Amino acid sequence: MKPGIYVVGTPIGNLGDISVRALDVLRAVQFILAEDTRHTQILLQRYQIRKPLISCHRFNEAARQRLVLEKVAAGAAVALVTNAGMPGVADPGARIVTAARRAGVYLTVIPGASAATAAVALSGFGGAGFLFEGFLPRKAGARQRRLQALRWASVPVVFFEAPQRGLALLAEMNTIFPERDLFAGRELTKLHEECLWGTVAEVWQEFAQRAGAVRGELVLVLAPASKAERKQKEKTASAEAGDLDQLNEQAGRE
């Protein structure tokens, strides 16, 4: 197998969703860089693959760059995987890929499952592209500003959120665009998969009435702003600009 780094997509839940090519690559490489070696070991055991695993997560990815490049320089083929989906997409991996590119190392991708595209397909809002936002900022102020900006998007917007913060995010969305249509996918492709469609307010209320936090990771797809909403925003912006010009003129005369 050609020395280099093989960026491999893995299942987002159901282990049966891995591709034949991905399995062939995982069997052929000398090492596997994994976000969580314990998690990846479950996948490998399912398909009776035995390979050395090296941890590569967001806390040590920068430090792993030199080790990986040394192994490739010595003739090794290395697979890069994360716990679910594609490396570098709301997951570790981008630093390794960038370091390899700069070093002139052979890079290739073995595409796999994607929670973002799976959710867009189920939402019914797609067809003309979408905006992948992923995880919003942790700080409340930055998160609110980002949500305010995204409310005018002309394409669906995809969000990821951890179980412990899912209900809080839905509550924040409910204060900004309660009547906007929303798709919520919980534990997609897993045993307890759940899909909800409705307005932001309806989806938030459904989860809020349940005891405790949302169980399982959430993928949210916010429907695009309607043409009427975007036109109203343009009118409001024009009116505000006119008011500002008038104030500036008055200030100049004074």
Explain this structure:
Strand 6, helix 6 and strand 7 form a beta-alpha-beta unit. This protein folds into two domains: 107 residues, Cobalt-precorrin-4 Transmethylase, domain 1 (3-Layer(aba) Sandwich); 114 residues, Tetrapyrrole methylase, C-terminal domain (Methyltransferase, Cobalt-precorrin-4 Transmethylase, Domain 2, 2-Layer Sandwich). It contains nine helices and ten strands. Helices cover 44% and strands 19% of the residues. The model has no long low-confidence stretch (mean pLDDT 91). The strands form two sheets. Strands 3-2-4-1-5 form a five-stranded parallel beta sheet, with helices on both faces. The protein has a five-stranded mixed beta sheet with strand order 6-7-10-8-9. Helix 7 packs antiparallel against helix 8. By secondary structure, the protein is an alpha/beta fold. The protein is elongated, with a radius of gyration of 23 Å.
